[in-house]
Amino acid sequence: MRRLSTIITVLLVLLAVCAGPAIAVEPDEILGDPVLEQRARKLSTGLRCLVCQNQSIDDSNAPLAKDLRVLVREKLVEGYSDQQILDHLVDRYGEFVLLKPRFGGQTMLLWLLPGIILGVGTIFVIRLFRRKYEPADSVSPLNKNEEAALTKILDERD
Amino acid sequence: MIAELGHYALILALAFSLVQSVVPLVGVRYRDASLMISASVTAVIAFLAVAFSFAALTDAYVSSDFSVLNVWQNSHTLKPTIFKISGVWGNHEGSMLLWILVLSLFSALVAIFAKNLPGTLKALVLVVQGWLLSTFLLFILLTSNPFERLIPPPLEGRDLNPILQDIGLAIHPPLLYFGYVGFSLTFSFALAALISGRIDGAWARFVRPWALIAWISLTVGIAMGSYWAYYELGWGGWWFWDPVENASFMPWLLGTALIHSTLVMEKRDALKIWTILLAILTFSFALLGTFLVRSGVLTSVHSFASDPTRGVFILAILVVFIGGSLALFALRATTLKPGGLFQSISREGALVFNNLILATATATVLVGTLYPLVLEAINGTKISVGPPYFNLTFGPLMIPLLIAMPLGPLMSWKRSDLMPVLARLYFVAGLSLAAALIVASMTYGGPVLSVLAVGLAFWVMLGALCELAERSGKKGTPLKTRMARLTGLPRTVWGSACAHFGVGLLVLGIVGATAFDEELLAQLKPGETMNAAGYELTHEGLGVRKGPNYEEEVVRITVRKNGELIARLEPAKRVYQARKSTTTEAAIKTSFLTQLYVSPGETFPDQSAVIHVWWKPLVVLIWFGPVVMAIGGLISFSDRRLRVGVPTKALKKGQPANA
Questions:
Q1: CA–CA dist B624, B617 (Å, integer)
Q2: The complex's ipTM?
Q3: Which of A3, A23, A121 sits opposite B610 (nearest CB)?
């Protein structure tokens, strides 16, 4: 019980750090070159603020997020490609830093499952319609009264 | 004393719900009507007991009784009364109590209002509700007692997390729980049907109103939560694909599928097995959401493992209820007779397509939400699954759904042809294309996909209108006849058209706010002006304001357009004394559907301030769209066929109810 409340307290503190004054990117970080800055913003939205709960470094104002934003911009100025920067960050912080997990052995199912589920679902649906087309032999023939009623309706139509 | 009474009332409620879990079942077994009817009585008493308990906790909060541990942890004497009340459910114990209150309320509502329900079905539904209620009462009594005492009582409380001190907390969780827990009834109806073995179109008609109430609440609740996050968190985001959000979104997606499949079951007696499964799964996802949010498993698998009492308890509830109901389903579903036949191109076919996509979308969100947890539990690898994943997987799934949306309602039941339906939509397609082209020319060089999405939004909206127009008569029908026919249409038709129109609005809002927004960030000295999206924002100086339990630093900003003053905005940073924590209060200027969102940043000794400005065109539609969808749900809900047992009106028109 006490442990849990400690954890919650720590979390709330973390949340307060992250969610506090919410401005994320600060003016002194912004690069002079708008093309590079654009790339920096795009990269930042895909990188996780490691001490926050589910926030990108672009949104977070935790000190670590700022460090990462500055790091990304430094590398961009040094002429790194987007991919090189991502690789560099993964080397340093692990796959955890990427909000969009890379396709690999561990994440294969993650990326393939939606397609597999859709495929299986589609097959089910197709089979459903196939089955429906088979003549149902449980249909009982009309009795005399029903037949008379039907003829009457059909006659009226003509 | 009152706290002890509240605690006692919970135990009383447990006793009554245990009776409700067993006695009516015996009644059903031995066909004893009085035993079956007892379910209604116990349901109402259990609700009253839980309501009393809830009132007792609320009283402790309002009177700042810090001898109750829960109140001390989450309240403060200086907190405004409304936040004292909403603070009741701003914590684990209190929110579980609210959960239980809503659960018992729904049981009582069925007991009192479901008069046309067959006795056996009603008794069985309440039995399953009794199982749920007693389980959750046990959970709260054994692991999360909100009435635990703290002796000696401290003089002052620790206050509520400032982010939660907002009108959003007063409205969002109750609405969300109404939705979540409302689906407990569809679950109970499904189990009752499986136990009794009687499943037909009438069952769907009984379930539909409850599914609709739950869906309406969940729709508004999620939209409300999104707006709350948007203005409170202060960086202009409105959906984060956060696990907690996903936890509420999954039951919504499945619930949406459910209200569509009950249509097929009600009208055509088909898709019975699937609809029952969907009714079970929808609530299972609500339970899963409760588990994810309440067990702490989301923050880290490790924090879950370090104090597992609550988590394991809810996990056990999950396993027993979901596993048990699915086992019962597997046992009984095969005995169900398949219902009405239909071809793939038909109204039923379109609704099956809707269900296929929505179920896949739910599974996708589930995979994305649980994958990191499972992977970490298996081999300790930590990965993040964030918005880019969901945008890439969930996003594309929505496209065929949106394309099909106007087609479905124009198709006839049993068998239909695609070409005539498409022919009726030529006009709509043309107009949507025109809308997309206009947007493209206005935002030359803008993203192509967004332009297509605008077209899609109009396709959905105009398609909804087209359905109404089509039903009012063929070409050449005089306007008077059309109007008469329109007013005579069943309310469900109006309801679905309205809800579909709302979806179109939502899509339009999403595209506008994400693809055509503008963002600007600057550090301004007092008197300096920045230009953003055609507005001139001037920093007029800093100020300090005192609230009841906080102090805030305000940045005074005037907004001008072409030199004319249109707004004074005061975004602020608040410091709450009790927890020494800060929140950002963004300032928002709404002009019709578009918002100017101003968030304050750091301030400096020379009085200069960092100001972050977003211009978000059509962003209001993101929340207005769901409201329109919910209104559609309400219109559908008011249809008399849902209240009256037999659809006499439909029979008169010569359309057999059971073809």
A1: 14
A2: 0.85
A3: A23
